Amino acid sequence: ARAVAVVPAAGRGERLGYGMPKALVPVRGTALLTHAVRGLLNAGCVRHVVVAAPPADVEVVAALLRDADLPADVVPGGADRTDSVRRAFEHAVKAVPDVRVVLVHDAARAFTPPSVIRAVVAAVASGAPAVIPVLPMADTVKQVDFDGTVLATPDRSALRVVQTPQGFATDVLTRAYAEAGDSATDDAGLVEKIGVPVATVPGHACAMKVTTPFDLAIAEAVLAGQEN
Ligand code: CTP
Ligand code: MG
Question: What ipTM describes this predicted complex?
Answer without folding.
Answer: 0.99
